[in-house]
Design brief:
globular, five-stranded parallel sheet, 4 helices, 5 strands
Length: about 120
């Protein structure tokens, strides 16, 4: 059985629903414990990780992210984007990790054999 390694990159707030649907569909298609999935947010998309976000249906999306995280999906935020959007790590959900620079994370993951997807 293959172990799928995927990094999904998001930089637009309007693409979050599509991304979460893509991730859910990926997990269903690959089977349990057959994947490594990381969602990397940078630019304005890091705002979706903020606890004080009040977008339409945001609560449902948070539940989806929490569920996906419990299934092994990593959610990562670019520290540079957090600074640019005046967000601090303390303002993010507990399941969100940070990396120094999103572009470096993309390079590292692709060098590790991760497939790159950007909805």
């Amino acid at each position: 059985m293959k172990n799928y390694k995927v990094i999904i990159h998001i930089d637009e707030m309007t693409k979050w629903k599509l991304l979460l649907t893509n991730v859910s569909n990926l997990l269903k298609a690959t089977g349990e414990d057959n994947y490594s999935v990381e969602v990397l947010a940078n630019a304005e998309a890091v705002k979706y990780y903020a606890k004080n976000q009040h977008a339409l249906d945001f609560d449902n999306d948070v539940k989806t992210m929490e569920s996906l995280n419990q299934q092994g999906v990593k959610f990562v935020a670019c520290s540079n984007a957090l600074m640019a959007n005046n967000l601090k790590k303390d303002n993010l959900y507990d399941y969100v990790e940070t990396v120094p620079a999103g572009v470096i994370e993309l390079v590292v993951k692709q060098n590790e054999g991760y497939c790159y997807i950007k909805p």
